[in-house]
Structures are given as C-alpha cells and as structure tokens.
Design brief:
By secondary structure, the chain is of the alpha+beta class. The chain is built from 3 helices and 4 strands; from the N terminus they run βββαααβ. The protein has a 4-stranded mixed sheet with strand order 1-2-3-4. A hairpin with a 4-residue loop joins β1 and β2.
Length: 87
C-alpha cells in the first residue's frame, strides 16, 4: 500500500520551527515536519507566525504531500523533516 494522508490534521510547533503532519504506510504512522523556511519558500507572502504558516501549509498541501512521498520513498523512516531542498 502506498503512503497516504487520510488524516488532514496538522499543527504548528514554534519550538521546532515547523508544521507537523502525519502519513500512513499501511498501518505504520509516519511523522513529517515541514520547516518554517520551506513553507516561507513555498509561500513568500506568509508571515512568520502560526496562523500564516498553517495557511501556507494548507495552500500547498498537495505539493507538500508529493514531496513527502518522494522523500519517504528514498528513506523509509518513521520521522522525516522536509526542508526547502525537498521541493
């Protein structure tokens, strides 16, 4: 079964400077984080606050999930942090 994203929840983590979300490979949960810098690169008008960065994530969810699938396909780890170079 390919990696999928049935859970649309996401959360901003100011301490880690990222937005977290989750994917599933069969029954295994995979934790993903997208760095603030990557979100700002995807949406340069985004301000550097929780509301704006979550909005940038939402606007780019398809692109972020595609990048997550690509990176997961290479690493197959339970935790993956996406940076600007992954897009």
């Amino acid at each position: 079964m390919p990696l999928n994203f049935p859970n649309t929840s996401r959360s901003y983590e100011p301490r880690k400077q990222c937005v977290s979300f989750w994917g599933y490979d069969s029954t295994m949960e995979i934790s993903f984080e997208v760095e603030d810098e990557a979100l700002h690169a995807l949406c340069p008008t985004a301000e550097r606050n929780e509301s704006s960065l979550l909005g940038a994530f939402d606007l780019n969810r398809d692109r972020i999930e595609k990048a997550a699938v690509k990176v997961y396909g290479k690493r197959r780890q339970f935790y993956i942090r996406l940076s600007s170079k992954d897009f």
